[in-house]
Structure prediction request, 682 residues.
Amino acid sequence: MIRIQNVSKIYRTEHVETHALSGFSLHVEPGEFLAVMGPSGSGKTTFLNVTGLLDSFDSGTYHLGGEDVSRLSDSEMSRIRNQKIGFIFQSFNLIPDLNVFDNVDVPLRYRGMAASARREAIEEALEIVGLSSRLKHYPSQLSGGQQQRVAVARALVGTPGLILADEPTGNLDSAMANEIMDLLEKINEMNTTVLVVTHDPELAARASRQIYLLDGRLIDMESHEAAAPLYTPAKAAGSPGAQA
Amino acid sequence: MLAYQLKIAFSSLRRNPVLSTLLIGGIALGIAVSTAFVTTYYMMASDPIPAKSDLLFAVQLDSWGADEPFDDERPEEAPTQLTYRDMVSIMESEIPTHQTGMYKGQLTVHPESETDRPFRAMTRLCFADFFTMFDVPFVHGGSWGARADSGPEPVVVISKETNQRLFGGGNSVGETVRIEDRDFTVVGVLAQWRPQIKYYDVNNNEFGESEEIFIPFNFNRPLELYSSGNTWGWKFYPGNEYDDFLASENVFIQMWVQLDSERQRAEYLAFLNAYTESQRELGRFERPTNNKVTPVMQWLDAREVVPDEAKLMLIIAMLFLIVCSVNLIGILLGKFLGRAPEVGVRRALGASKLSIFVQHIVECELIGLLGGVVGIALSGVALKLINGLFSDGVFVFGLDLNMVGAGVILSLVAGLLAGIYPAWRICRVAPATHLKLQ
Prediction:
């Protein structure tokens, strides 16, 4: 599903170069449920942005679903994001002026689907997340957990092969967090590849594989153990706003 | 997709009514001013007879004296009117498809009803071809015939207003109208006819109304009717009789011909040149040959019918619209950049840069159109004010469909002008930057 080879990403300012990803390589099989962990500043979000074609990278190659997506035009990347990737964000990122139905409708609008097909897909996605009765509600009328479920429905609605979730439970209490993880497991059972960035080892443990990032590199378990002094999951886990 | 973009644009405008009102008001102000001045310019400068303007020619013969040109400032110009005897002579030509000499005078009309008082009517003395050449519309009857021209027969064509005044607006063809000391028979009643510019006689108030009555030219002599328009001369003429005036070098007649081909035009010009050469042998036409036949639009241009001030005002109005649009750039930029997090989400969900750009341009065009609607309505008010400047009330500027269309196009251009940079900026926002920050 995902084949990333030797990818590097450097953020440059006038005086400083930050190596967000350094020779990063990763292979994810279709249908995997992968948890991405690592301390703040380790490159988790950069990894997710690169994987989601939201950000470019400086060197290396990236194949998504067998297609080389290393150097695509903006419209090509947008098409792939729209059709192959679903995003779930820590702060939900629902559009406040749109009701639940219209929020879930957004990715389908950019696909040019007919109204009847869109309605069917939206109702099905909201059925999966258990919000069929909240079609006309606005985000401000929903709890945090409900908003994240709408975001999950929005990620699902286009039936993408890959779901990227950036700390999807970071702004939720533990009960809500578990509900969201339940949903992600349910999605994964539908043979959708799921990548979740999280600071919470308990939630990460629910994934079929965990990877660890440190200083923009993927490290193995042993390295992770060695790096433990640099990373304190207990401190980071559940702290809202904690970022990679 | 456009419907979706429009839905987003309406939603965005509803989100902040005060800001939206400011934006729409800014465009409306620019459109009101620009549309008003575009309309005045358009009505002054537009082709008054588009179907035939290339076929109708004003005739000029340089019969002026040798000592000084007709126009000191433009010595190359021939007189813009003809003498009576030159007009009579060149009317002998059979080259033009149609031709007419003409001038305006004032005659007293005596209504039949004893309760109605006689009134002075603006009169055009012309030949029958006048009505054909200038596509004059009739509601009843029509032009008189060639026999009435040569007779002359006492026939008259009256305007719609005159028909209303004398006959209550009914079909008055065959009725009698007493003009001065004789009876004329009505042969035609005009439909509403008011060329915005009286292009067939720009020597005498080009913005004035068309005449109230029209009679065969050759009644000039029986009625001894002098021109009530401009009469120019360069040579003293002896005698006080009307025939002395007609034999003089005074110019007061407008002469128009219809020439349907280049060949016809060349032949007619050659005819005019031959005529002036023959007159030169009689001691007339002291200046070098300078005869001209000029089509309608060139004639209006040469006569400077559209004043320079109108052109200047048009430029100022366009600049004003640009300033209004440019002022909105900053406001739109702030509004759009404030929406960067939402744009980031849309980009993540599959919107391309182009799609985001178009979405914001659609919003700007919606603002432009709404501003345009308000602006066009305001320009109607502005035109009323401009009309008020013409105290005689004879020149009336008004919006027609073309001008409404121009206003709509201007509003779209203004919206584009105001929105293109902010839309470009917002579409280039990196989506990843804002997804974490919401």
Observations:
- Chain B has 15 helices and eleven strands.
- The CA atoms of residues 3 and 16 of chain B lie 21 Å apart.
- The first strand of chain B starts at residue 56 and ends at 60.
- The first helix of chain B runs from residue 2 to 15.
